[in-house]
Amino acid sequence: MVHLPAAQRALDVVSPIVIYRQIGRRPSRIYVDEAMKVVESGGAQRRLSDRVYWRTLAKPGDQIQDRPGGILIVTAAGEWYPILLAEPTPLSPDTAFTHADLAIKADQNTMDGLVASGSLVDATPRRPKGPPSRPSDKMFADDHPLVVEELPRGTTLTAEMAPTRRPPGNWMRGARPASR
Questions:
Q1: Is the pLDDT at 173 greater than 50, yes or no?
Q2: Which among 94, 119, 134, 172 could bridge 114 via Cys, Cβ 3.0 to 4.6 Å?
Q3: Cβ atoms < 10 Å from Cβ of 93
Q4: Which of 21, 75, 31, 78 has its CA nearest to residue 51?
Q5: Cβ(40)–Cβ(29) under 8 Å?
Q6: Are 14 and 120 in contact (CB under 8 A)?
Q7: 113 near 18, Cβ under 8 Å?
């Protein structure tokens, strides 16, 4: 089982709330050069990506968990995946390297507002079942909207499994590093 840091806070969903689930990425308008200087045009080699989200709902029976690194939802069936509670924003030159921290703070502020309104109530953290649902890494066009109301045709909610039936990525339990 994948190590999952303990929940700092768990909240049961009492009434439906808007959440944002990542469905892919799109090229941002932010570039970074070799000196890690942020440039807003194509003058640098490396282009950063914005995450693309699907606006959906968390329903009663789901649980929102605040964990180190961000917010997770644990569904009534026990599935779990990362979400945002606050409206996503694109990268900007001023916040390109602090964007994730700002998103976490915005989520925590939104969470506090949802608790105050009675849509979320404090709870004991539930243990998720199975491995995490890794967000899809599908690449969209530059002009694709940051947030969509409906899933684009052919979009999956999770990363595709490799032909080896292993999740995508470089990490494998018990594998030795490649020799150099």
A1: no
A2: 119
A3: 11
A4: 21
A5: yes
A6: yes
A7: no
pLDDT confidence band for 136 (50 / 70 / 90): confident
Q: How far apart are CA 52 and CA 20, in angstroms?
A: 9
CB 138 within 8 A of CB 148: no
- Count the Cβ atoms, other than its own, within 10 Å of residue 110: 19
Residue 40 in contact with residue 93, Cβ under 8 Å? yes
22-78 confidence digits (pLDDT tens)? 999 999 988 888 888 887 766 667 889 999 999 999 999 999 999 988 899 999 988
Please say if the pLDDT value at position 80 is more than 60.
yes
β-pair type (147-148, 46-58): parallel
And the tokens for 100?
A: 């994730």
Relative to beta strand 63-67, strand 46-58 is unpaired
